[in-house]
What we know:
Blueprint: H1 22-46, H2 62-74, H3 81-94, E1 102-104, H4 106-117, E2 120-122, E3 125-130, E4 133-139, H5 144-147, E5 155-159, E6 162-163, H6 169-176, E7 183-189, E8 197-202, E9 204-206, E10 211-215, E11 220-225, H7 232-245, E12 250-254, H8 263-270, E13 279-284, E14 290-294, E15 305-309, H9 316-328, E16 332-334, E17 342-348, E18 354-363, E19 379-380, H10 405-416, H11 430-442, H12 454-469, H13 472-485
Parallel strand pairs: 11-12, 12-15, 15-16, 16-19
Antiparallel strand pairs: 1-18, 2-9, 3-4, 4-5, 5-6, 5-7, 7-8, 10-11, 13-14, 13-18, 17-18
Helix pairs in contact: 4-6, 8-9, 10-12
Amino acid sequence: MVDEGKVEQGTENKSGYIRMKKFPFIMLLFLLVFLSAGITTFALAFGKDKVVTVAPQRSEFNKLYAAFDTLKNGYYKDVNQQKLINGAIDGMVSSLDDPYSDYMSNEEAKSFHSSISSSFEGIGAEIQEKDGHIIIVSPIKGSPAEKAGLKPNDIVVTVNGKSIQGMNSTQAVTLIRGKKGTKVELTIQRPGTDAPMTVPIVRDTIPIETVYGEMVDESIAKVQITSFSTNTTKELVTTLNDLQKKGMKGVVLDLRQNPGGLLDQAVSITSMFVPKGKVIVKEQDRNGKVKEIASQNEGSPNLPLVVLIDKGSASASEIFAAAVKESAGVPLVGEKSFGKGTVQTAEDFKDGSNLKYTIAKWLTPNGNWIHKKGIVPDFDVALPDYASLPIINPEKELALSTSSTEVQTAQKMLKAVGYDPEREDGFFDEKTKEAVIAFQTAQGLPADGVLKGDSTMKLMDLLREKIKASDTQLQKAVEVLKERMK
């Protein structure tokens, strides 16, 4: 939520004014100008650069000014003054030890604004700094990041060979984003795997289309919200109206892999499913003062609803999930959510740079703070094991007699899509080659028994289709929804 305000303060003497005779007044002005010029000349001729002063003086900044002047005058080569100032601000923000607070340069600020309100060019993944690492919160639906197989909690180790250890999320985004059609290579460390993976991704235009709907059967619709962006409420209303015309009587709302977004959009959408006057979210400021935001009941809270969440559901997604659960009795299905319980605002400086910082905690309607804890679903349902398989670098050749973790992953993928190599130990033997040839033949690919390039990409595509067709979480959500519709 952005809630900015500026207050201009001034003083005005309303008690009257002092009259002076004209001649003495002019002489006094002349004397003051003469003295000022003399003092200035003396300072320029004999003085050194002194600590910068501002009015009113604030003693807490004396050390900062002294450090600035020491570097400016004593460093062994010329320094960029603006860079020093930016570094000081960045250092202040970094000292908060808050991954959601950032100081952004002009270029970084433009990138930040575009990701909220329009399309942008990049890989399409929400990232976050955590414990000195950059991690994937969630890839955007249909994005290059999703197609490459990036998953929540993947740690980005390097970008084009450059370590991003210690960078904040804004700095990392600047490296990862780029023009459509260009390639960026990420080294990923996935929790639970031993070796890091190299993932080449071709950047593309990432449209901010956030709502996707389809009928699951004759009466139940599945609606996926991928993020809470500027037009998400409008998109959702349009989608629900279209699905009602197709016979929708109940909805599974899918918030899996949804990294959040704008608070006002989350509140507006939640109001569509929570009775009027019921609490949606509470904000708690630094002094412990709590502000409640209630439902405006802009929609149909009587529409049967079940919500899907997972470890990629964060921030605004969690606000929605907690609100419908606690204020409307809507069941949650899936896995425990990410756990982001703070609210940020952003303020632009005159030079185009930007300061994003945390202004409050948000609490669930029952007063729970889910930060770093997440929301536990009513029905804990995992996806099949093959849904969490790591990606394979399509530029790497997997062939007869090779042995690696990538071969092991390929063997598990082959088995999942119906071409069982009869082993999953990472050794590429004759049986594995036969399975690869069978897979290649069925898919109209050159049947050389080698996994690389198009063969690897097609194998991962088939696995994604298999995961979608065997969506155990969605199946459970539909089952629960049917019970609620009786």
